[in-house]
Amino acid sequence: MASNDDRVKASWRSYLELCKPNVVALMILTSVIGMMLASPTFPHWKVMLFGNLGIALMAASAAAINHIVDRKIDPIMSRTRNRPLAKGNVDVTHALLFSTILGVSGMALLITQINALTAWLTFASLIGYAVVYTLFLKRATPQNIVIGGLAGAAPPLLGWTSVTGVVEPNSLLLVLIIFAWTPPHFWALAIHRKAEYAKADIPMLPVTHGEAYTKVQILLYTLILLAISLFPFITGMSGYLYLGAALALGLRFIYWAVVMIRNVRPHAAINTFKYSITYLMLLFLALLVDHYLVAYIGT
Ligand code: HEM
Ligand SMILES: CC(C)=CCC/C(C)=C/CC/C(C)=C/COP(=O)(O)OP(=O)(O)O
């Protein structure tokens, strides 16, 4: 029999799971880097702490709403059937309350400690993901994740505006990178999980247009991504170290897209999905290292 302690731990874990912590962690890495690139000096500790905390709370709130909206389809797919609401470990009322607490405290932090622009842009991202994508687009069109991807791509912009209070062109470049990255990131997983999405009646691209078509789309987006990822170098935001990293990481992504199209390797789709996460992490770290290296060498 489970002890009281086990039950408490299980419920903590369930609430943590509602936040999609790994996804939010990578988002926060991109918002931290957005903050650091926004100014030549290191951002004020208050902006770093309250800005990222506010953005993380709002993203986690959106993730919890996603769990609530998807509670009927999550039990159908093996990847999601153990989620807290799908399993009944957390009920809708508690999840809604939890999401509201996260969202309201995130918004309060951003408005009082950061600035109104960042707060409202973050709120727009929350609505974009939790309502526009999850409630409508996900069930309506195979272009769901392309349009919905804009919400997930926002964190570097949110980090940037936390520091500057204004939307600047370079911050939009970072958004564009994640926007172009999202289709290959997600469609690789969707190919791997095609049968489950079909079973749940969700019109993901591999279900509606087939695997071969989706793989070509992935290749096209990885080519676009490689091109877009060079913009920070072209505009002078980053230097040669970043250029080298963007080229190497981008070519590796294209390699995986081609491996998928050639259909000669088992597990190519899931490996491409895993690589997409490594790609984004390393690309943003390269932006960061380059930024401080250039500043250091320049002094
Ligand atoms: C609309 C846009 C996006 C869609 C549809 C999408 C979809 C997904 C899905 C279905 C998973 C699998 C989750 C699981 O197995 O539990 C996943 C995992 C992941 N995604 Fe995304 N994603 C999107 C945007 C992003 C963004 C913007 C980031 C970060 C900047 C991100 C980072 C991750 C990470 C780190 C994982 C691994 C999670 C884990 O291992 O627990 N995703 N994504
Ligand atoms: C405020 C802000 C920055 C908001 C962004 C919030 C956020 C956590 C976006 C995550 C994107 C994501 C994991 C989409 C997958 O949803 P899915 O429903 O297709 O995947 P699932 O089946 O794994 O739930």
From TrEMBL:
Swiss-Prot/TrEMBL catalytic activity: heme b + (2E,6E)-farnesyl diphosphate + H2O = Fe(II)-heme o + diphosphate
Membrane topology qualifier: Multi-pass membrane protein
Q: Entry's CDD domains?
A: PT_UbiA_Cox10
Supply the alphabetized keyword list. Answer: Cell membrane, Heme biosynthesis, Membrane, Transferase, Transmembrane, Transmembrane helix
**Do you know which InterPro entries this protein is assigned to?**
Protohaem_IX_farnesylTrfase, UbiA_prenyltransferase, UbiA_prenylTrfase_CS, UbiA_sf
Q: Which GO terms describe its molecular function?
A: protoheme IX farnesyltransferase activity
Transmembrane spans: 21-42, 48-69, 90-111, 117-137, 144-166, 172-191, 212-234, 240-258, 279-298
Q: What is this protein called?
A: Protoheme IX farnesyltransferase
Q: Which organism is it from?
A: Alkalimarinus alittae
Q: Which gene encodes it?
A: cyoE
